[in-house]
Design brief:
With 432 residues, the chain is an alpha+beta fold. The protein has helices at 10-20, 29-68, 93-101, 135-138, 142-145, 169-175, 215-220, 226-232, 256-263, 272-315, 317-325, 330-361, 363-373, 381-384, 395-421, 425-429; strands spanning 72-76, 79-80, 86-87, 106-120, 125-133, 150-152, 164-168, 182-193, 196-210, 221-225, 241-246, 267-271. The chain is built from 16 helices and 12 strands. Strands 4-5-10-7-9-8 form a 6-stranded mixed barrel. Strand 4 (106-120) and strand 5 form a beta hairpin.
Length: 432
Amino acid sequence: MSANPPPFAPFEWQIAWRYLRARRAEGGVSVMTWISLIGIALAVAALIITLSVRAGFRAEFVDTILGANAHVTIYNAGEPNDTGRLDRTIPDYTDMAARLAAVPGVTRAAPLVKGQVMASGVGATTGVEVFGIAAADLATIPRIAQTDAFQGDLSRFGEEGGEVIAIGSGIARGLNVTIGDRIKLISPDGVKTPFGTSPRVKTYEVIYIFTAGRYDIDQTRVYMPFTEAQSYFNRDGVADEIEIMVEYPETVDDMAIPLLRAAGERGLIWTWRDASGSFLRALDIEDNVMFIILSVLVLIASMNIVSGLIMLVKNKGRDIGILRTMGLTEASVLRVFFLCGASTGLIGTLIGLTFGCLFAIYIDPIFALVDRLSGGNVWDPSVRGIYALPALLQWKDVLSAVALSLGLSFVITIFPARRAARMNPVEALRYE
């Protein structure tokens, strides 16, 4: 043996490996090693799975928002009309839509007529929100017209005189209707007469049923041809708002000033971040809290390494004394026991990494099995808003989990390793 062996020499690895393989007859250290491995593996896997589900939930939530709703909504400030009521309608909607569509980064600007009515089907009634939109504009909405989950077709949508509508799958189930059936829409703001305003009641044929992926959208949304919506809601010659889609929704706040300039002096703006920003911020806060909580679990699991090393040092006191008398330095003894703890942390982290990534990748069949075994009550879309538990495996989440586990494992291993290195060989061999 060299007088000054290099750090982490082969013999140090051999000694550490021998100690890790200690049998029950030699003190049961291997049992503690297995407990440490399993604890770290489960903690790392739980951290990766949780971060992946949170990332997937956020991505799915944002995707359903951006895929079925306007990225930016432009509407007019209220202006008193002849009757003294505030009028927010847009009379020059065609010109305004053209100006807004010319703003760099805007992919579509569509006039809308919106209203809330009662829908009556086969033995059932529900409240719905009607969107009056042109057929060409409806065809560009990803989660509505470009989804794989649909029934019927939109070829008749927007035909002159066509009393047709497109409805969400939740509405179809609630009203017990399908393609070709007719539903009745009832609006309280109907025909104005000398005796007051009478409700407007009209029947429409269902030609298209979509599933946007959001429970609240599928349960409430109805699309009607733009001209028909103008007639139904007494919006002749005007629109209620302009729906805008942009190329990069994440940077929509940077486009607020150009859009307001294009909208005119009465124009007001409402972005998807304004509508969902508080929820997204809550998700970010929850992500941070969950990371801290699961980091504590990783720390607790890593403490098992300390327990195992302390037991190892106690059981190997005689060996340490012999090695020191043979010329092994304190630094070599420290590195030997550091390798014992670090190897346990590294192997446990790799096992947890593999298990966590596989669980996140195959989360759909796993939860499908759980849902089947539990009778189908595990996932309630009316509570969570989406129909499945999503998972998005991101490299930053995986790296943060691995770095946290390895960092804690390496740091806490130093303390029992230093205790072993500072052990007096004379004291270790006194009772031998």
